[in-house]
Design a protein that fits this description.
six-stranded parallel beta sheet; Rossmann fold; alpha/beta; 3 domains; single chain; 18 strands
């Protein structure tokens, strides 16, 4: 008779899940047995820490639009793995989490070691997981385990994607049960997941088209929702049809190639001047897949976006995100791609007489006048090396087909401002909670899923120190990621805000990260002079091994990029 773990493993395969990220422990050791017996159909990846596993699953979800599974023992899923789960929850990435309460021998009421049921003598894992997932259920028997996983899969991909969790009590993990005896009856999983995303109504598409056609200075703002929907062609079609320039939030970066004539780059306090001034001067703003959060809107500055004088049309798959931070003239709940394509149809039906070529030339001139992706530090010969110079050299070497993963901290601000994406969907950035080190395991997953493409991860020394174990994972799985580390021996972003004479808590001695990389089987190159920077980056990028370029950089405040 099959065990519940075997039926669940087959369910994951039926759902198209081909990767499990995590670490065995507690009752999940038994679940891993079922996964390993099916390793021709589903691959178990041993992360060295649960936080890295959840970041890898987050990236898997962003790349594929499907959930990967994060599997591990309850105590460490609720603590370590929370790092990537919270990011996925706020960023909108699908993820399936399977874990346990470790109520060994069904002794939850008597305080067994590592018990997570929430009873006296235990910590409350269900409450922890419910605070950072779309859906969490506790399975106390085999039927609940099996149905719980099926429902978690549904929740993770329906509407705005996100993480969903199943927490197993001890006796649900190894129960034996015939599939026909599962209660209630099992139906084909596909029919439970066969749900179309929300779509714009014909009336709303017409309203949006009319407003855009009548605008004199329209602007489009896009966020991560465009990446989630893979709505790149639809966005470009609308932009080019009406000659509307496109700005992005940080997580929406590369929603349109920043090399495109109508691209304005990222918005916000450290965004492109061209993007910010076009937004402030717009009479109509079409907002797609972003809730216009404070970090993207200069803390909701009234002189940046002003609904009293600007019309706002907002599209989001989550209705609560529409008209959340600003009132709107038209609020639309829809998948981004479906909405944009319908609006384009209505625009073409109207046949507006708009001089698109003139608009494009005006945007190109405007960007040139406002220093689009320009900065004096890009060519700086200062020592230590300017972080802007590092980003500039990376920008020259990155090709259109490459994948770029950005970490958090000051390094991401320099990359956000100065790295110009070459194609739509090229850049992936942590920004849900923006935890330091997210980009490093995320880059591993990106390389795992794209073995023939080059993956470059821009990160900092603080981030790398938190995720050093990922270098060993990269070596073990032969993942030729290029890590470019801006190493200033400082928690730079924190230090910028704390001010001078507070370095005692933010600075530390410089660690030789290149030597550390070598000790873990990776290529490691140390760079201290700007003349050595380009050759080092080229050597790393031409290698078929995981490579880390450790660049000693100046402690340039991120305010320099404003």
């Amino acid at each position: 008779m099959p065990k519940s773990t075997e039926i669940v493993a087959d369910t994951l395969i039926e759902a198209g899940i081909d990767y499990v990220f995590g670490m065995p422990g507690g009752g999940m050791m038994f679940f891993y047995n079922a996964i390993l017996e099916r390793n021709d159909k589903i691959k178990a990846v041993l992360a060295r820490q649960e936080g890295a596993a959840s970041c890898m699953a987050d990236m898997y979800g962003r790349l594929t639009g499907r959930p990967a599974a994060v599997v591990g023992q309850g105590a460490w899923i609720g603590s370590n793995a929370a790092f990537g789960i919270m990011e996925a929850y706020l960023a909108g990435s699908p993820m399936l989490i399977i874990t346990d309460t470790s109520d060994y021998a069904n002794l939850a009421l008597h305080g067994p070691y590592q018990n997570a049921t929430g009873d006296y003598g235990a910590f409350d894992l269900p409450s922890i997981m419910r605070s950072m997932t779309k859906f969490t259920t506790v399975a106390s028997n085999a039927s609940e385990f099996i149905h719980g996983v099926r429902l978690a899969l549904k929740h993770s991909i329906t509407g705005k994607p996100g993480p969903a969790a199943v927490i197993c009590r001890w006796n649900s993990i190894n129960d034996e049960i015939e599939p026909e005896n599962v209660t209630p009856k099992l139906f084909p999983l596909e029919k439970h997941l066969n749900v179309s995303p929300p779509c714009i109504s014909d009336e709303d598409a017409k309203k949006a088209a009319d407003i855009l056609i009548g605008a004199k200075n329209p602007v489009i703002i896009v966020g991560r929702g465009v990446h989630a929907a893979k709505a790149y062609d639809e966005l470009l079609d609308l932009s080019m049809t009406l000659g509307i320039p496109v700005a992005t939030s940080y997580m929406g970066k590369s929603g349109i190639p920043e090399t495109n004539d109508l691209a304005l780059g990222t918005m916000g306090i450290v965004g492109q001047r061209a993007a910010n001034e076009k937004i402030a001067g717009a009479d109509v703003i079409l907002v797609v897949g972003t809730c216009l959060a404070p970090e993207n809107t200069k803390m909701l500055a009234p002189d940046f976006i002003n609904p009293d004088v600007q019309k706002i049309v907002q599209i989001d798959i989550e209705p609560l995100n529409v008209a959340w931070t600003y009132p709107v003239d038209v609020g639309i709940t829809s998948d981004a791609g479906l909405a944009l394509s319908r609006i384009v149809v209505k625009v073409r039906e109207k046949g507006p007489k708009i001089d698109v070529s003139k608009r494009v030339e005006e945007v190109k001139k405007f960007k040139a006048e406002h220093g689009y992706f320009a900065h004096d530090l890009l060519t700086s010969d200062e020592s230590p090396i300017s972080p802007a110079r590092v980003v500039g050299e990376v920008d020259k070497l990155v090709k259109k087909d490459d994948i770029v993963v950005l970490d958090t901290g000051n390094n991401r601000i320099f990359f956000k401002k100065l790295f110009k994406s070459k194609r739509a969907g090229q850049v992936f950035a942590g920004g849900g909670v923006a935890g330091m080190g997210w980009g490093i395991p995320a880059a591993l997953a990106a390389q795992m899923l794209n073995p023939k493409r080059r993956v470059i991860c821009g990160t900092g020394d603080g981030c790398m120190m938190m995720m050093l174990h990922c270098l060993e994972t990269a070596s073990q799985y032969e993942l030729a990621v290029n890590f470019v580390v801006l190493n200033n021996s400082l928690l730079g972003n924190i230090n910028d805000f704390m001010g001078k004479k507070k370095e005692l808590i933010t600075e530390y001695r410089e660690v030789d990260l290149a030597s550390t990389a070598k000790s873990m089987g990776c290529m490691g190159i140390k760079v201290k002079d700007h003349k050595d920077l380009e050759p080092a980056l080229k050597e790393a990028m031409e290698s078929d091994r995981p490579a880390l370029v450790d660049v000693t950089t100046a402690r340039t405040p991120h305010f320099t990029m404003m």
